Model the fold of this input.
Amino acid sequence: MPVSALSPSESVASVLASFQGKGRAYLLPCLLAVQRAHGWLSPDLVTRVGAALAVPVADIYGVIDFYTMLYSQPHGRRLLRVCDDIACYLAQPTNCESLRDTIATHTGLRQHGDTTPDGAFTLELMPCLGRCTDAPAVLLDETPLPAAALLSWLASDRDADVLPAAVETAPPAPVLGDVVLADHVGRVDPWSLADYEQRGGFAALRQALGAMTPAAVVQAIEASGLVGRGGAAFPTGVKWRSAADEPATPKMVVCNADESEPGTFKDRILLQGDPFRLLEAMALTAYAIQGQGEVSGYIYLRGEYGYLAPLLENALARCREAGYLGHHLLGSHFDIELRLGAGAYICGEETALFESIEGKRGMPRIKPPFPVQVGLFGKPTVINNVETFFNIPPIVRHGPGWLRQYGTAQSPGTKLFGVSGCVQRPGLYELPLGRSLRHLLFDQAGGPLPDRRITSVLLGGAAGAFVSAAHFDVALDWQSLREIGATLGSGAVMVLDDRVAPWEVVRRVARFFAHESCGKCYPCQMGTQRQVEIVERLRTGQARPHDRLDLDDLAGAMRDASLCGLGQTASGAILSAVELFGG
Done:
């Protein structure tokens, strides 16, 4: 039943009753549910949430102020959420700026936070929405909508209380390239467990339970050479073995689906097209690390992907019914809970993600101790991202050689690349590690747009680096890219051509990090702000004599003294831009 069909008092009362006594760990889901019922978090509702969960009101406001998708003030009945980040700036023929101009023509809304006089709409300018091949990306409240459909609706006699007819509901298109890992996407019914099973789903889990010890599963992952696909490239098997060796129980398995790196959308497409594979992989992980105790699982889904929650909840329910989750699978209890974020890039950092699940502001913890020792709720925790988990079932089912038949000796396997910007065929591509950037850009993505020339690529996302045409023949693997000062990062490949003002792209990179810094550590909090100021002067030709040296000093301070990867990598793309574009 849509929220509009319920009175606020009835829906809020029902929500609060469902969370009564659950404690602080349920603060974020409670706030999101109350907000969905009422529209915003009024002082009275905050007090009632605090009473239901036994959380101080001051702490609740600290959480609300931290997340951009929680609102302590009223807003329009509909939120027009328009991406204002790099990939949507690069889009053609319509980009985020021209889309905003047209929205302003129809509604009068131009600046972030503007609301129409009748209270129907509020405009929100968002960082990357993870829909880069649909750029410029738009959410109407939580619903993806093609930009053309939105504009057509706004130009008509629209009713703000009724969604437009052209809501985007189609499953994702199949992944392109040499598809191995994503072979089910676009080919399997993501709502059907039976369809997944008919295509070999859960065969790896049954094999592990019937013929492999937990130690043998860990050994297979180690021997495969799999490393994390989220950017850090840490050996997955080493992480699993460390967690398995920890005596404390229960243990935790966490999927990091808070994919917020600009230009990155691979995990969304995997989840949208093949959700049961993730659950099988998490169950295999739980079996591998369980030791003598129970294991609990969590999927942390970024708030902007809230429209995927019904799909994932369906997959969880079907797996519980079939006995893949619940009390029967491992000889002890293993289940998975879905948690939704609320708009904070920093929660992609593993310990900040734990803090968020625990009902706190998503701020990174000091390490050590590491998550495999003291993770979620203080328990030994394995956390991997979606793409990493997707490698687990075939490795277990076919052996470590399955992964090593692809890629290079040092970088085995395939990698998913999200290609966006100034190319003919933006999309998600899967390639064996070691293929060249030129092969991805020209042979796969079709090369430049007509009468244009590709000048540079922002490789690895906002935390990556700009590379020029001189590096298009570099191999896409961790070792080769490290040699040229670049990184695979999240797999984002944002392409610039000769019509793009590169320093406008750099400005958006700097702005992103300044906005997303959590503020916990001073080097990042202040360094990202000063970085924006210097980049703006470089962009407008008003550079001061020492700006270039100051950028280097800022980068060194943030890299050496920041608590987490956000501050440590916030200057990488900007320094590479200075080298490439001058400044």
Remarks:
- Residues 522-539 form the longest helix (18 residues).
